[in-house]
Design brief:
The protein is mostly beta strands.
């Protein structure tokens, strides 16, 4: 299984997430060409890297200085066996500003026209990675998909579980994560 010794990211995004009845939490994401890195502020010791080029997922423990590399094919098989929702995507024409970026509203509607989520995206940032990829793994999108490639989700409200996610910080900054000094295990 292939993976890189280090990964370079060119965008930093901080998300604030909340769910009804729960405390707010923050998630930090770094985006690069065919790679993402995610950590939750509640547990910054654990870092996840998705290497799309090599089809690998890497779970890093900063505390233990270990990295477990797993083929994303395993994750793909698990996701393929999960129930998926049929979703129709509709662009509403509504626009608003988030952190100074123009965002467009999209409604994701499931079975029996039940609203699944509202997302606000921007293409003004110019990411080389589509942040909707993880979301689309849980859904079967029917009908024409009007969401552009390389869009950054700036806000998402999921109706089913009353979850709200909002970008609170964005920077174009180069960051590198090296696996040098980590005990790497291939799984």
């Amino acid at each position: 299984m292939n993976y890189k010794d280090s990964y370079t990211f060119d965008h930093y995004v901080k998300y604030e997430m909340s769910k009804a009845g729960s405390d707010k939490t923050a998630m930090t994401c770094y985006y690069g060409t065919n790679v993402t890195m995610v950590s939750m502020d509640a547990n910054p010791d654990v870092i996840m890297i998705s290497d799309m080029e090599n089809k690998a997922g890497i779970m890093i423990s900063e505390k233990e200085k270990t990295a477990i590399v797993q083929s994303s094919e395993v994750t793909d098989q698990i996701m393929a066996n999960q129930p998926k929702s049929d979703v129709t995507v509709t662009k509403t024409g509504q626009k608003k500003q988030i952190l100074g970026y123009t965002c467009e509203e999209y409604i994701l509607t499931g079975n029996e026209n039940k609203k699944y989520a509202v997302i606000w995206i921007t293409t003004e940032i110019g990411l080389s990675h589509n942040t909707l990829e993880a979301l689309s793994q849980r859904m079967v999108i029917t009908g024409p998909t009007t969401i552009p490639e390389n869009a950054l989700v700036m806000e998402m409200i999921i109706s089913e579980n009353d979850t709200h996610m909002l970008v609170t910080e964005f920077k174009k900054v180069t960051t590198t994560k090296s696996l040098e000094g980590y005990k790497v295990t291939l799984y």
